[in-house]
Structures
1.
Amino acid sequence: GQNIDQPTEMTATEGAIVQINCTYQTSGFNGLFWYQQHAGEAPTFLSYNVLDGLEEKGRFSSFLSRSKGYSYLLLKELQMKDSASYLCAVSPFSGGYQKVTFGTGTKLQVIP
Amino acid sequence: GAVVSQHPSRVICKSGTSVKIECRSLDFQATTMFWYRQFPKQSLMLMATSNEGSKATYEQGVEKDKFLINHASLTLSTLTVTSAHPEDSSFYICSAIMTGQAYGYTFGSGTRLTVV
């Protein structure tokens, strides 16, 4: 089965850095997604990690440790528009069109 | 980049009626599309995998006779909620993968269904 855990809510200050953690226990693993979802909208793709290590994309970075079943999303220079839910999701197998399992999401509130 | 159009964005229907939701891939072909449901403050739950030209694969607990999926072309999948009830009120989202692409699911904009 699939078990994905993330904190339910987080609050951070505008301009600061926040780290959103995700741990997973899955029957198969190929890679881990991070998505951003604003209230009432569909998720938008942020990153996909397959290999261990940190991948940076502008203000957002994503880290993966396959041996520990752990990932985090790092948001720097927080802006008010970053207030949203952040979903981590696991892709179980490589290749093909495999089902993705989503975590429950972390609702981030950025305050002035 | 790849765009998935979902229509309608919001729909209110009476209990017992049926509602059709369309998911179209624009400018790319999608042999596989996924349908998700999201209740308030919950995550996306996969309902079914829609394959062009064949029957959809439903997740455990999802009634295939209630949620009819038709993937008639490489750019269109439809989800019909039949005999809708208030408990079917939810946010329905489709996603598609460009043929030949292994990841990077593109999501539609979602449909807010309210059954009264």
2.
Amino acid sequence: NAGVTQTPKFQVLKTGQSMTLQCAQDMNHNSMYWYRQDPGMGLRLIYYSASEGTTDKGEVPNGYNVSRLNKREFSLRLESAAPSQTSVYFCASRISLAGVQETQYFGPGTRLLVL
Amino acid sequence: RKEVEQDPGPFNVPEGATVAFNCTYSNSASQSFFWYRQDCRKEPKLLMSVYSSGNEDGRFTAQLNRASQYISLLIRDSKLSDSATYLCVAVPTGTASKLTFGTGTRLQVTL
């Protein structure tokens, strides 16, 4: 099992450009999450998908959109990148079954620099 | 008040020392708890779950105090390789749960 994979690993954008960060998991997990991590701020939830077909805003959704393409894949889109979106982005997944005490597993992250 | 609070540190300890971190949570409905380890420029990785009765995994011991709403992580015989940031996580009830992460405590183990 590859676990949670993310592409690309690194990306440099100019202000105003758009891009999509890809995430996939092969653990048959129901829930998927996108976080950003900035120095001193910890992990902040951008969007999450509790199950296939649903998405919800997290703590910092402005400037982002998501698509839960299928059970395996959850993408994050920046329509018009801004320097404030320079960050490390982590995707995570969780089984989310009733009665199962289970936590999240993270992908390796995407480092994004917006100039 | 943040839902999950941790002392950011850094905790600088010599190799072989015992070090403990606490993490307080504000949501009394939180049902399960975990500790993660995050190395510099890497993703958080699950270190251990925290059970109500306390649990041990080698040199690591995790404890939960529901009355005072905190969890703790004790590391015995610290190794240089334990240097990392340790994140605590509280999980509320419900399958569509949004986990709440602390901002992490940085540990630096020195010779």
